[in-house]
Write a structure and sequence with these properties.
This is 4-diphosphocytidyl-2-C-methyl-D-erythritol kinase. It holds the Pfam family GHMP_kinases_N. The structure is a single chain. By secondary structure, the protein is α+β, with helices and mostly antiparallel strands. The chain folds into two domains: 159 residues, Ribosomal Protein S5, domain 2, CATH 3.30.230; 125 residues, GHMP kinase, C-terminal domain (Alpha-Beta Plaits, 2-Layer Sandwich). Helices cover 34% and strands 28% of the residues. The strands form two sheets. Strands 1, 2, 3, 4, 5, 6, 8 and 12 form an eight-stranded mixed β-sheet that branches. It has a four-stranded antiparallel β-sheet with strand order 9-10-7-11, with helices on both faces. The longest helix is centred in the middle third of the chain and has 17 residues. The protein is globular. The structure holds cytidine-5'-monophosphate. Cytidine-5'-monophosphate binds next to strand 2 and helix 5.
């Protein structure tokens, strides 16, 4: 291991501009056509050597909701990387400066895993090949590989098989943060319940949506946004419909639940409109807070 230094990695949140969900597979996961877009809300993961074994701390407004034991994906990432290199129990202090909503459908936990992996690789000088890092990410969770690469990508399989996508311009978003989280497995289980007895089609990426990303056209992207998990998230959290309505009435081009929710995402035509929609959402009292962010954003980056 290298000397007594610390490494900080910045990692973005994501929104799924299309989340097409297939029928459940025999392993319990669902095949997806998952169009990820990284957005400029970031967690920062800092690692430094620790004499006391693996230690995890977290700061930020929602820090009390983050588990600080070995179940945290960031801790699991450090353990997995150490195992890959035969280093045994990692002596590392991982600090997460959290700005991404917790359990919000914006891949905050996945971001921390990708950040911890890249940061530990730099701290330990292990120089893990990119493909090996991506394989470790995929073992940690379906969304973790995308947190590493950022930008925009189509995720197939359970979301871990990535093809990078071209994005032709900046998109301006507002994210309404709800009180409390939603469990991703619970939302998928509700999707299964709602689609019982229905022939669920093979998930396919929408050509119109890919074209809208390529040309950077917010109106075209707004028309193509789609999330198959939205009915399930709304079924578990009916009040989200009021948030979606409030943002649309305030001038958003389109609104949808972000991933498995309960964060809701609003695409706007420009930065000025995003500020106005965020203010209206906060005034509507249908959410805890609202944040503006621009996409695409770069993936996990050593600062
Ligand atoms: O891969 P990850 O650990 O993030 O998945 C969390 C849960 O979300 C899984 O246990 C599963 O219930 C659900 N999931 C799914 N199909 C996917 C991705 C996640 O059913 N493609």
């Amino acid at each position: 291991m290298k000397g007594n230094v610390s490494v900080t990695v910045r990692v973005p949140a994501k929104v799924n501009v299309q989340l097409a969900v297939g029928a459940p597979r025999s392993d319990g996961f669902h095949d997806l056509a998952n169009v990820f877009l990284a957005v400029g809300l970031y967690d920062e993961v800092t690692v430094e050597p620790s004499d006391g074994g693996l230690r995890l701390t977290c700061s930020g407004p929602d820090a009390d909701q983050v588990p600080l034991d070995r179940t945290n994906l960031a801790a699991r990432a450090a353990i997995a990387l150490a195992a890959r290199h035969g280093l045994g129990e990692p002596g590392v202090h991982i600090h997460i400066a959290k700005d991404i909503p917790v359990a919000g459908g914006m891949a905050g936990g996945s971001a921390d895993a990708a950040g911890a992996l890249l940061a530990c690789d730099a701290l330990w000088g292990t120089e893990t090949p990119r493909d090996d890092l991506l394989a470790i990410c995929a073992e940690l969770g379906s969304d973790v590989p995308f947190s590493l690469v950022g930008g925009a990508a189509l995720g197939r399989g359970r979301g871990e098989l990535l093809t990078p996508l071209e994005v032709g311009g900046a998109f301006h978003w507002v994210f309404a943060v709800a009180d409390g989280g939603l469990s991703t497995p619970a939302v998928y289980a509700e999707f299964d319940r709602l689609t019982e007895g229905v022939a669920v089609p093979e998930p396919e990426a929408s050509p119109a949506l890919l074209e809208a990303l390529r040309t950077g056209d917010p109106s075209a992207l707004a028309a193509a946004l789609a999330n198959d998990l939205q009915p399930a998230a709304l079924s578990l959290r009916p009040s989200l419909a009021e948030t979606l309505r409030a943002g649309t009435e305030a001038g958003a081009l389109a609104a949808l639940v972000s991933g498995s929710g309960p964060t809701t995402a609003f695409l706007t035509k420009d930065a000025e409109s995003a500020t106005a929609v965020a203010e209206a959402l906060i005034a509507s009292a249908t959410c805890r807070t609202a944040r503006v962010a621009v996409s695409p954003a770069p993936g996990a980056t050593v600062l």
